[in-house]
C-alpha cells in the first residue's frame, strides 16, 4: 500500500519497520518450512514462532499487550503475508488478530479478556470463528440452564477449525443472536471433517460440531440487541476490508507477473501483450487496480473516522475480489496451456482468490448487504423531519 499517497502518509516509523521486517519474513520458502506436508497446512508451533518474531497483536492497543499499530498495521502485515503466495495464512491471521482479539477487547466481561487475550497474542492459543451453519433450517442454538449455557450445532468450512483451541461460536441464544467463547477441549466439541481444498491451503478448514456443549454463562462474549449487531458489523467489516486488501495484493502481484509474461511471449510476429485485445484487457485490469487502491484508502479513512462503513466495505470486498478473480481468469488464458498446469503462478493465484469469494461472506451476500443498507439509508433520507428538525422513520 505504500504506493498509495493517502495511506503512506499515515505510516509511522514503527509501521515502516514492521513493513520491512515482514516483507523479508513471509516468502513461499518460509511457508514451506512450516507446513505439515508439501502443500499442507501450517504446524501448530508456527503461531508461537509468529509471536516470537513480533507478528501477533499488531493492531491491538499496547496497554492490552499489542503493538498499537491499529488497522494500518494490519494492512501492512497483510501486504507482507501476500508474499507467501497462499491466502490461508492471511485469513487465519485476520481471524486470530482482528476477529478473536476484537471480541475479547470489547467483551462485556473483562475476565474473559484476561483469560484468553494474552494466550492469543503469544500464539499459545489459536482461535477460530464458527459461523456457517449447515443450512438455515439447522441453526446453532444455545439455551441458558442456570449458570450455564448449552450449545447444539455444527459449523462448516471454519478456518483453523482443526488447529484452534478456542472457538468463537455464533448461536441463537434463548432466541436472540449471540457469540459464545468455547474451548475446544470442552466435552461435546468435535472436529468432524477437515476439508481438502483448492487454495488457501496453508491453514486447515474444518467442520466443528457442538453436541450438548456446556459452558459457563460468563463465556458469552456478546448477546442480542443493537450492541450485538454493532459489534458484529464492526468485526465483520474489518475482516472484509482486510480480505479486500488481500485480493488487491494478489491482483497487483498477478498483474505484474502477467504483464512481464506477455511482453516476453511473441505470437503472430509481435509480443502477446501488444495485440490490442490483450493490451485493452490489461489496461482495464490496471484501472481496476487503481480503483481498488483508492477504495481501500477510502474505507480505511471511514473506519478510522468511526463512521458507518457496512455497505461501503461490503461493496469494496465485492469489487476487489470480483476484479481480482477476473484478472486471474484472463492471466491463466494468456499463459495458454501453461496456465492449466499446477505450477502456473496465475492458476495458483486463482486458487487463493476463489477462497476470498466465500470467506467473510459470499460475493452475493456482499451485494445483498450493500443493496439493503443503501436502501435503508435512502429511506431515512426521505423521511420527513419533525418540528424540531429530528428525522423520523
Ligand atoms: C476460504 C474460506 C474460508 C471460510 N472461513 C470461514 C470461517 O472461518 N468460519 C465460518 O464460519 N465460515 C467460513 N467460511 C464459510 C463461508 O462463510 C460460507 O461458505 C459462505 O458464507 C457461503 O455459505 P454456504 O457455503 O453455506 O453457501 P450457501 O449458503 O449454500 O450459498 C451458496 C451460494 O448461493 C448464494 N445465495 C445464498 N442465498 C441466496 C439467495 N437468496 N439468492 C441468491 N443467491 C443466494 C450464496 O451467496 C452462495 O454464493 C469460509 C469459506 C471459505 C471458502
TrEMBL record:
Gene Ontology cellular component list:
cytoplasm
The Acyl-CoA oxidase/dehydrogenase middle domain, residue ranges: 139-213
Q: Which InterPro entries match?
A: Acyl-CoA_dehydrogenase (IPR050741), Acyl-CoA_Oxase/DH_mid-dom (IPR006091), Acyl-CoA_Oxase/DH_mid-dom_sf (IPR046373), AcylCo_DH-like_C (IPR036250), AcylCo_DH/oxidase_C (IPR009075), AcylCoA_DH/ox_N (IPR013786), AcylCoA_DH/ox_N_sf (IPR037069), AcylCoA_DH/oxidase_NM_dom_sf (IPR009100)
Every Acyl-CoA dehydrogenase/oxidase N-terminal domain range: 14-124
As cofactor, the record names: FAD
GO biological process terms, alphabetically, are: fatty acid beta-oxidation using acyl-CoA dehydrogenase
Sorted UniProt keywords = FAD, Flavoprotein, Oxidoreductase
One GO term in the molecular function aspect is:
acyl-CoA dehydrogenase activity
Q: Which domain of life is it from?
A: Bacteria
Q: Which residues form the Acyl-CoA dehydrogenase/oxidase C-terminal domain?
A: 236-371
Answer yes or no on keyword Protein transport: no
Cell division is among the record's keywords: no
Which Pfam families does UniProt cross-reference here? Acyl-CoA_dh_1 (PF00441), Acyl-CoA_dh_M (PF02770), Acyl-CoA_dh_N (PF02771)
Family in the record:
Belongs to the acyl-CoA dehydrogenase family.
Which named protein is this?
A: Acyl-CoA dehydrogenase
Record organism: Kitasatospora aureofaciens
